[in-house]
Prior knowledge:
By secondary structure, this protein is mainly alpha-helical. It contains eleven helices and two strands, in the order H-H-H-H-H-H-H-H-H-H-E-E-H.
Amino acid sequence: MSVWVNLLKKEIRLGIPTFLVPIIGFLVICAIAGYFGNRNGFMWEALVGVVVLAIGLQAFYLAYYMFFSLQAEHKKLHLWLHSPLPAYGLLSAKLVAGLISMLITTIIVGSIGLFSITQSEMWGGVTEYISTFQLMEVGLYGGLALYLFSLSAVVWVMLFWMIFLLLSKLMNGFFSFALTAVSVIAMFLFVGWFSLTNVFARLTEWGEIKLGHMIQSIDFETSLTGGTEIATETGNISFYFGTLLYETIFALALFVITCWILDRKIEV
């Protein structure tokens, strides 16, 4: 366990540049949006818009973090694989480091967003139509969905990176990259096709869990003359336990395959 913890500390330290780049980029864009927004009288609304965009991009944060972390290991692969830990230990350390980085990033983005929206003119309209409990509910389930999607995306990055390494042992860089790209397209086409079949529906559409009557969307419209208008849409939200179980098993299967490739095909 101590070996894994030490590896995690190393991954966090080596991941600092990958962590800082999007944070600095986000703050720079916030400064630009705030400057031009302030000149036109809607600085806080402009910042809220930047935050909404950043939250959407957060869904791919783990994939971004893992890609650059694995790419850094490509230059010194023999040193990384020299660790006494098995493949799942090596990859899980990177995954946890990415989750820690993503959590800090989410807190920074969320804090700026919360402060901006409470200072904006739209806040009065928000509190008029939406209770504090409803906002917390949307934040909780939205955050959970964000992290689940991010975890689902990152296992694909790990798998395709291992496929690229495996192909790199057999052919030069260009052809290995090209075949990896083809495998990415083929795999997603297959997954997309399978998700439309009756078999997929039977595997996933069972165990409906109803979350009750919740806000489904919040739309803001800001203009120089009309101020800020807010429109909300509510409805009964539910999800299938079967879908959650299927996606979890599928992600774990991809992770196991990735570890097997690293242990048996790359590390040899």
